[in-house]
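Subject: for your reference before the review

Hello V.,

The reviewers asked for a structural picture of the protein, and I figured it would be easier to keep everything in one thread rather than splitting it across files. Below is the amino acid sequence we used in the manuscript, unchanged from the supplementary table.
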Amino acid sequence: MAMFLDKAKIKILSGRGGNGAVAWRREKYVDKGGPAGGDGGRGGDVYLIADADMTTLMDFQYQSIFKAENGENGRPKSQHGKGGKDLYIKVPIGTVVKDPENDKIIADLTESEQKVLVAKGGRGGRGNARFATAQKRAPQFCEPGEPGIERNLELELKLIADVGLLGMPNAGKSTLISVISSAKPKIADYPFTTLVPHLGVVKKPSGDGFVVADIPGLIEGASEGVGLGHEFLRHVERCRFLIHIVDITGDNPVENYLKINDELKKHSQRLADLYQIVALNKIDSVESEKQQEYLNLFKAYAKDVFLISAATKQNIDSFLNFVMQKVDEIPKPEFKIDIEQDLAAFDNDDSSYSVYKIDKNTYSVEGGKLIRLANVTDTRNIDQLYRFQNILASMNVYDALKQAGIKDGDVVKIGHIQFDYYE
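And here is what came back from the structure prediction:
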């Protein structure tokens, strides 16, 4: 049996944009060539997309870091760099996406092929051809590409089934789902046979079908985390209705039935209010008089009660016909989750920086944008150095150096660039 995983943590990185280029036209018969540095390509975006063929988050146990392609740098002859490919990460239908930084729900993927952007790729930097003006015909500088976005996400799966099977451990849920669908769950005579939810598709005479989820057995205290139930109660929330299977060969069937309904109510009122069909199972092991006694007893608690035997298939056809009728009658619930605007998917501003005193006369300035600007600055080119100094002034780097205690003649290091400071 494949392992079921309904929670996962992943790390995603969108692609960084390519740097612009500084280049010049050099054709033989073209007088006054002019700038011809191309733009860098944009970095790839990262999307999550719902895939109907996936049923668990198991894949993320083996791969948890995902990175989109970077954009290519610009080239001479005004050739733009190629954009990075977008990355589509497949997740099961029913996946809820959270940002652990603020615990906000940023997506709820409930339909096949539904997708959500979770990290925008960095914009490509402009080449020097973009900076040419009538006054400045030979710009000697370009722009660095924007960084990609790096973030962590939490994925939580809520199965989207039409019908949920509930019942105490060993009530016969796994046997029933194996009888009415093509699912082949593990079946054995001990509690908690079902350690994970099983999905089965029940074919209707019309040709289409509906999905039944075999939810792990609940016990008293499940809503507080006792047993297996607490982890899987959320999978019941999106069902049209529930089939409550009761083992009438066990001790206190009515008490067991009431205990589970109590756990549903503790988890949420919506679960408690879901319509239920009660299936009194294992009638092949109970005398007919006792069967009728239980039928009358449960009629006091539920409107629709059936006597069945999943093992021998007794009364299964009439029971299944009724279930199909209810699937047609009861619409899928409107299950709205409050989605927060996901600004972090677009936030690739890395203009913050820090000033560090390395030794008595040396200061280092570190910050993503400044390092990227330094990387595209040629220290042999006076125009590029002037522009770099102007950007430092506009970002208040010199003010920050003063606050750190810098004096005339001290050395400043930013990436590969090093210069003496004089106010």
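For the response letter, the relevant points are probably these. The CA atoms of residues 237 and 368 lie 44 Å apart. Residues 253-267 form the longest helix (15 residues).

Happy to draft the paragraph if you're swamped.

O.
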